[in-house]
Fold this sequence. Notes:
The protein has 480 residues and is α/β, with parallel strands linked by helices. Helices cover 39% and strands 15% of the residues. It has two domains: 11-152, Response regulator (Rossmann fold), CATH 3.40.50.2300; 176-475, Rossmann fold, CATH 3.40.50.300.
Amino acid sequence: MASHQPPLNPESLGSAAGASSALKMLLALRAWGDVQQLQSVFSPGNANGIEIVTWCQDGARVFSDATALDADIVLLDPTLPAFEPNDVQRLYHNERKPIVTIGAIPQQGDWGAKLYQIGAKGHVDAPLGEAQARALVAIAHRAVQDALRERTSPSYIPQVDTRVAQVIATHGWEKAVVAVWSAKGGVGKSTTSENLAAVLGVLANRRTILIDANMAGGNAHIHFGIADAQIAKNIAALARRFQMNVQTAGYRNHSGNVGVLSAPALLSPAEVQGHLIPIRNNLSVLIGIPKQFMGGDEYFQGDLGRGFMHELLNVASSIADFVVIDLGQDTNAAVHLQALRDANYVFVVINPDAASVRATAEVMDTLFKHLQLDRQKFRLVTNRFHEEHGIARKDIVNALQMPEVGVIPDGGPKVTASLNRGFPLVIDSRGEIARQYVAIASTLYPPVTQIWQSRAKLGGAGNEGLGKKLSELMFGSSRA
């Protein structure tokens, strides 16, 4: 490109082009020819309002270079070796300022769509020439301005330790144990855990175990319509089995280094599997205590209770892709606390009211400071949210200092009706509440988003019979 070409003028964007505060751009490109073309346009002091700060060919360096050099823009070739898709969101939600990613899209493949899925704010086509450079000026200034407006908006939600739902190259995912917990009762923990488990086990068809471990009394057997004859196979029965195994194995207390948590395996996969109730597709449930007083039994207390939960989660995670635990709010309960320790993620459910937020913040402070739980694995789910409740999502996130993975709108009678019907709302609903549960599940298993989109094309509320038949064809028929 000849250097005598006129400058690319972005004045129509209302930007500060040509001013001393030019935007800083990092080139994350493979082709040296593309870099040369851009260097001739965005040389120091150019009138286009953009200057290049560096060029890198190592995808692993993109985030560190962009933040260290105070870049505003990253022009990214997504085929760059060692490129980490999560970095696009990490850059955009960089604490100091947003750093926007613009794609330099290769001619082969569907990289454009994939980059937009993970948060790119625009693209130009490679190889880069004069037309692409002119387009880049307009795209870059507009994208930075939009990002700054979003950052200063009251509705902006900072994303701490973001997990991108779409994983590009491999569509990869990891097995996980997820505890659903709250510092208060009645906020929707059971509804959240049951619907999350249903998305993973029924819709996504991954091997999923829902453990009802609420020591204030379990409700999963009611919400899933499990027959009375099967209620005897509950978590208390399995805990008694564990206690018998401990006694048989000659358990020694913590007088030395040997205790329940360090003893050989005391629950077999067959014993755990024998207490599970199959629900539908790949979802099974371990029923909770049917009577509240049972939460005080000795096999749930102290070392024995902690050992039981530790062993149960070890075995469950060995036979399932996902384990979802519905916990009661009492962190003094041994099984609750052990589940919080052992889980890969803790989804904290709150309602958008000041009392719920304050109570949660106080308990979380204790968990982190005194019990040394890992703050990084805690995620926020705001349930029954409505904008007219007078508390902003941003304020909730800032008060609790954890990333938000889901906002469930106030469902009112729809949610209650689903509980009374005996199966979770996500199984027979295509509405916004169900969609939000799917969005939460996608942070654990990204492909479920595509499954949900395909499912949404089948039938609808106006044709209930057809929708039900098609759902059964895809996801299996409901239990008798």
